[in-house]
Amino acid sequence: MNFDLPALPEGWVYSSLEDCARANSISYGVVQPGSPVTGGVPIIRVNNFRGTRIDLSETMRVAPEIEAKYARTRLAGGEVLLTLVGSVGQVAVVPDALKGFNVARAVAVIDPLQHVSAEWIALCLRSPLSQHLLTSRANTTVQTTINLKDVRALPIPMPPAAERQTITKMVSALDDRITLLRETNATLEAIAQALFKSWFVDFDPVRAKQEGRAPEGMDEATAALFPDEFEESELGLVPRGWRSCSFIETITVIGGGTPKTSIREYWNGHIPWFSVVDAPAVTDVFVIDTVKHITEQGLRNSSTSLLPLGTTIISARGTVGRLALVGREMAMNQSCYGLRGKASDDYFTYFNTYRIVETLKQRTHGSVFDTITRDTLAGVCVVYPNGAFITAFERTVSPVMERVKENLKQAQTLATLRDTLLPRLISGKLRLSEAEAVLEEVAA
């Protein structure tokens, strides 16, 4: 296959991806996985890709006898994964922790030769050149699909080994910083999640006072808010003075919309426009940017509206139950709802929604697509405290959640820097010394 390729520096060459991989190692995974099986073999699907990493929060497991037919794509760690269907061109390197996993039909496995690192292959596949070549050859008749033949033929720039290693280290250093920020966010989100569960699900402070103990981890004023006994409710025993009610009674529901795609003036503006593809990993919580953006004109001439900071978004059609907290003003499409608490309770509303999301998903209806409706939201009962408890919770978790948001912004800044440097580095257009100076400035 002929490619119109940019010139490389002296000493660099192009090699096909197939020539950079072990013989016959570029293949796709399980074609017909069947129904999910508890305790089966986990497989990586397109929905598990999050940037440069794999998110295992929604992993499908298939029957071992089905997976056994696809031993060729069983992961050992160190392979490169590439999405072939739908959101094509996403790339990740398989960590050792995923040894024994397999992949779906929509994911290609690439096993690099020993002298060609997986990290280098992944960097090249993420580059604008590779992404352009992939999308330009994709079949879009039904669903965007990349042919393995085209994948194998992709040109990979190959500088001398020492330069390759230096470039890989530079980009990996940025990736490591991004990973550390995300790991910190996972810890912070778990702290906030645990506090919500302790106060509003397990009622630990009430149980402590009932037993004559001081509630742990709170000041006297906050502890004084909690009663020392329970009372009966529709949901069983709840703290005295709290009530059970329909979830929809605790929120205001906001709908979304899509500006006409045929009118160019409505699109590519400065207003983020959320759809389910923008849903963050659970531990990132916030959404601070989106794939698509609309203009003020598009906003005015459609049923969408600007969502205030702190709004909880839930995907309600197709891929249901994905959550996000609005980290900057944005619009959203009609397949989502925006949920606003009625008591200035952004974080309480988010964690309360997170707690019941599995119940909501189980109660979806729709003849073609699973759908969460307003009736679905109304059909779930929750325990609801009075405003003083919610205010205390918001005050306690706000510093934690603000740090999550700031970490996410920093991670996005680093990712933008990485994506800016990457194409210039792997094409030889940016000197290594210049790239090192940029990285030192960022680290300062």
UniProtKB/TrEMBL annotation:
SUPFAM superfamilies on file: DNA methylase specificity domain
- Could you tell me the keywords of this UniProt record? DNA-binding, Restriction system
An individual GO BP term: DNA restriction-modification system
Q: Name one Pfam family in it.
A: Methylase_S
Q: Which residues form a coiled coil?
A: none
Report the family membership: Belongs to the type-I restriction system S methylase family.
> Mind telling me which InterPro entries this protein's record contains?
Restrct_endonuc_typeI_TRD (IPR000055), Restrct_endonuc_typeI_TRD_sf (IPR044946), Type-I_RS_S_subunit (IPR052021)
Q: What is the name listed in the Swiss-Prot or TrEMBL entry for this protein?
A: Restriction modification system DNA specificity domain protein
Q: Does the keyword Repeat apply?
A: no
A GO molecular-function descriptor: DNA binding
Q: Which Gene3D superfamilies match?
A: DNA methylase specificity domains
Describe the location of the Type I restriction modification DNA specificity domain by residue ranges: 38-189, 249-378
Protein source organism: Accumulibacter regalis
